[in-house]
Amino acid sequence: MRKVAVAGLAAALGVTLAGCGGSDGGSDGGKSTVTMWMYPVIDDQAKSKAFWDKVEKDFEAKNTGIDVKIEQQPWDGRQQKVTAALASKKGFDLVLLGPDQIPQYVKQGTVAPVDDAVAADKASFRPNALNALSVDGKLYGVPIYQTITAPIWNKKLLDDAGVTEVPKTWDEVLAAAPKLAAKKTPILLYPGAPETSLNLSFYPILWANGGSVFAADGKKAAFNGPEGVKSLQFLLDLQKAGGLPANAATLANVIEGSPLAQGKIAMYHAAAPIGATQLGAGVGEENVVVGGPIEGAKKVAFGIPGGIVLAKASKVADAAKKFAAYVGSAEVATQLATESGYFTARTDASPASASPLAKEFEKSLEFAFPGDTHPAARQVMTALAPEIQSALQGKKTAQQALDDAAKLVDDQLATAG
């Protein structure tokens, strides 16, 4: 069933793929031609083009037998285009993917392991980055950058409410909530809008409490277990204590211009570094504190590596892996981190120009967790998010909401096989 659907999608997008100038893994004048699809890791389009043009030129100067073509792609429609390209065996040799996308392609047999591409430098990569891009003990992506999230706090609001220490645990957050509520200030910007990734809302709380989205065998939901119920009940208790904004059920995780940046909410628990900058622009940099992962049973910070993935159909696999290794090298990783604002996935590479706020975020890298990587991870979010929203709107208890979502997810997983 899945193979038929993918083939149909590939046919439907055939014109798009041809327009991408994809590679068939051939050669040009005796050279191996390697095509890589890259995405806007560097936000500024001109800077992105200049950076990748230089990477391409520098690599080719050192590897005269390999011709590299780096094709800039938009984030929009990425999943469909990559799936279609892999199914049709046309479009690219290498592509940038995240941990949540890789398992489905491994299951479909359209991507190949790249362990040998990092073998020489394996000890220099962050273990959690390598683990995040691995499936069944095999590495399917060469890490080229690492994202991380952390709590960002408005310290002035805490001080005004008489909270002298920045809360470090979820119990401390709940205990501080009434003090801020007395000042008509919610403690937590919780983005409950269903379109918000649960990796940036509910899941960090679930993981901190020792819970997981899937059962160990991946065949059933686990988020409705005791840890999940505790996590959602925590949000409901926090809401009852005045710790959430009134519109939490429909709030998005946007910092700039939000009540958080307006000085009306004290904290967001899963912010990216740009969020801290945006908060500082709104309330004053002197009032911004970047905290460590808020602890429950353990400390967990959502963060994912970007990995260069090899198409199994590539006819120039050796040359492609050589280029992937170069992009993941300390030299290029440092330059990419400098230009993109992300962190490196290596312990031996860090941009010297990192800001004080960025250095605070960097402390959370050791707790980086990519989420529950599973072929159905994104579909599960679609089923679970509306149920969490229902609980926040007072329509269901924590247990009811999670059980209803779990039933739907279990049915989906059973159908998918």
In short:
This protein is an alpha+beta fold. The protein has helices at residues 2-12, 14-19, 45-62, 78-88, 102-108, 115-118, 127-132, 155-160, 170-181, 203-208, 226-240, 273-283, 317-327, 330-340, 356-362, 377-392, 398-416; strands spanning 27-28, 31-38, 66-72, 94-97, 111-112, 134-135, 138-139, 142-146, 150-154, 267-271, 288-290, 301-302, 305-311, 368-369.
Rg over CA atoms? 22 Å
Largest sheet: 7 strands, mixed
The proportion of strand residues reads 5-15%
DSSP strand tally:
14
Percent of residues in helices comes to 40-55%
Characterise this structure.
- This protein starts with a helix and ends with a helix.
- The protein is globular, with a radius of gyration of 22 Å.
- The protein has helices spanning 2-12, 14-19, 45-62, 78-88, 102-108, 115-118, 127-132, 155-160, 170-181, 203-208, 226-240, 273-283, 317-327, 330-340, 356-362, 377-392, 398-416, and strands at residues 27-28, 31-38, 66-72, 94-97, 111-112, 134-135, 138-139, 142-146, 150-154, 267-271, 288-290, 301-302, 305-311, 368-369.
- Strands 1, 2, 3, 4, 5, 8 and 13 form a 7-stranded mixed beta sheet that branches.
- The protein is of the alpha+beta class and 417 residues long.
Which descriptors would you attach to this protein?
single chain; alpha+beta; 7-stranded mixed sheet; 3-stranded antiparallel sheet; 14 strands; globular; disordered N terminus
